[in-house]
Each structure stands twice: as structure tokens, then as C-alpha cells.
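Collaborator request, handled under Task 6.
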Amino acid sequence: MSDAVTGLIERIRHRTARVGIIGLGYVGLPLARAFARTGFRVLGFDIDPVKVARLNAGQSYIKQIPDATVAGMREKGFEATDRFDRLGEPDAILICVPTPLTDAREPDLTYVVNSAHAVAAQLRAGQLVVLESTTYPTTTRDVVLPILERTGLAPGREFLLAFSPEREDPGNATFSVNNIPKVVGGLDRGSADAACALYSAVVPQVVRVSAPEIAEACKILENTYRAVNIALVNELKVLYDRMGIDVWEVIDAAKTKPFGFQAFYPGPGLGGHCIPVDPFYLTWIARKYGLNTRFIELAGEVNTGMPGFVIGKVADALNEAGMAVKGSKVAILGMAYKKDVDDPRESPSFELMDLLLKKGAQVSYNDPHIPTLPRMRHWPHLGTMTSTPLTTDYLAAQDCVLIATDHTSYDYDWIVQTSRLVVDTRNVTRNVKNGREKVVRA
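C-alpha cells returned to the collaborator:
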């Protein structure tokens, strides 16, 4: 074991190592909280000066992390900065930046590459660099490593490199960074030793694997598994709808089997940063190896078609009521990608809104967690809309209310009773009795 590795591990054990985190979003900020809570000084990096200023003022911009938590982190030495020339200060640097898709559904590693260049510009002997951003297998070795090697420092001896996939689940009150096992794959033995020592300080279990590629493939497998199974129930939803069979009741019946079945549920489309994106990273790298992942690509095709199916159901429901989509007032309830979070990333609600607007509908929305729509990469023209207060007059004035996100704060009995027509994509009106004839499930 090199002196660099030994020295870093000793600093980690004594909590004198400083941790740097690039990207202070839904992954990076909870990670910063976990390290700050266990006694590490944390320096967070973000390109958004507004975020940096708010964090340094003890204010949060993520619902699941209250202001008091950020204030407590500040008291323990947490600092945010947009000065990437300070990357030489931390002993360990964790990269938690987005890995989106291009318009051609190919991996966009711009944020990862830019972060690696920023680290390389300040890299010094004894530092550990860990990539946490979800990506295709070989990214750490083939993309990040060459950038860091251009510094002239030797990997495994002078600097250390590993991959450890984030497993953050926004809004999950049961599982967070501090109680989810952490998979770690180091470039070499010393890198793995240092990365495992670091994460062991904040998580209950570190799962050490033999290489970064194993850790990268592990995360892709986890999310592809979910995407494929969601696609299966989405496809069955379309089929059973045509057959007049209630897919939700079918799933409820199937999940009574105590083995061999895990319940997945249909919806208006996939959302969140991981599940709609990660499988396409795998299909892209597969093509580089001369293989077509037809099963995964078919799942992606099914899931991306769900918003269109939902809008078809809206159109049919309005037609039954003697109205066309064009000119109709449609309210979308929920712009977050899942219930009770303020995370709009890859939310199908944006596509639902876009499709309705293209058909000439007058569209508004309500979301208690998203008062103003953020400027989304693929939907920049929707970024000026604000949430309309959910009142009796507002609902009564709509030709159709489309439930896209099943927030628990919504009173669904009242919503159905007050609205003229409700299209429910989440089966949240299943127990509503009064006004049931106004509900169409999609």
C-alpha cells in the first residue's frame, strides 16, 4: 500500500480528511449531509451561484432537506462554492453530476467530462476521486481516468480512482444515504481500500466489488430491471384496458402470491433521472460491442409511448362528453415525477402538457411541491407557468382534470365531486364513491 493510500485512510479514520462533492442536487446534497453528520468537513461544488449562496446562508432548495439541516451542516463546517479552483483542498472528491441523454437518446457525459477536467486542473498527490453519476460500464476507466492521467500523476500510487453508484431515492422517508448499502469498485486495490474506508464512515454496509465496471453495471442493472418490469405492466395496462379488465385489480390479486412475484405499477410514463435514462446508456454501449439489446429497447419504446396513450384517453373522455381537445380547459394535477417530492426531472407530466398544448387545449397545472415550473432541457417553452391554487371554482371551470402525480395532500373525493371530468393515471380515485361516473382511468 502506497504512502498516499495509507495517509488518506488514516485521515479518513480520524475524520480529518476533507470531502469535496461536485454537484449539490438531489444526490450530492444528501451525500454532503451524511458526511457532515459523521464529522467530516465538506466542501460542496456547484456551477449554480444561486444554490451556493442559499446553502451558505443555511437555506435548502430541496424539500426533503429542511433549512435547519443545512444550517446544522454549516455549523459542522460545510461550505458551498462555485470556485472549482478550490478542488485541490479536499482529500476525497465525489462527482455527483447529471448524466442525461442527447436528443438522439445517446449518453451525454458533458457534465462528467467537465468535472473530470476541473478535478485534473487541481489534482494533487494523495487525493481520491470517486464517480457516483450513473453511467455505462467502462466510463470510469475509459473516460475519467485518461483525463486525470494527463496530469502526470500515477493512478493507484499518487491519486486514487473508484466508482460508487448513487442509490438516492428522493422523497423516500425510509431509505437514504446513511442506511443504503454502498457498492464500491476501485481502479486498483489501493483505490478500493480508500473508497471503502471513506464510505464505511457513513453507511452501514459497503459492498466491495472487483472493478469499477462491476459497480457501473450494477447500477445499470438495478434501473433497467425496474424499467423493463414497468414496461411490462404498462403494456398489460393498454391490453387489459382494451379487454375491459382492471389492470390494478389484476396486480393486487397477483401480489398475494408470497413468492416469485414483485408488484410493479403502470403510470403515465417514466420519470426521475435514472429509470427513463439508464437503460439507454446500456443499449448504447451494447451497440459498441456489436449487440442489440432488443428486450431493453422494446421496454423503452413501451414506456415512452405511455404519455401518448394517456392523451388518447383524455381525448376519448372529452369526446364522450361532446367536446374536442382543442379549446378545452385541462388541468394537470402533479408535475413532479412521483408523489410528495419537488423533483420534476424527466417527469412525464411535461410531455402530457406539451401534447395537450399541441392539440390546442388550454392547459394549467397544480402541484403543491412545484410552485413554478423550472426551465426543463427538453421543454424550455413550459418554463414560465406557475401552479394554480386548487380551489372549487378552479376545478369546476375545467373541462377535464388529469391526475398525473398521486400526491398524498390531494383530497381525491373532493376533486372528483368538484370536477366535471377526471382522468386518473395513478388509480388514486379507486375508493371514491360519489361522482364515480365522472372518472376515467388511463
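The cover message to the collaborator said: "The chain has a mean pLDDT of 94. Residues 305-441 form a domain with the Rossmann fold fold (CATH 3.40.50.720). Please let us know whether this matches your experimental observations."
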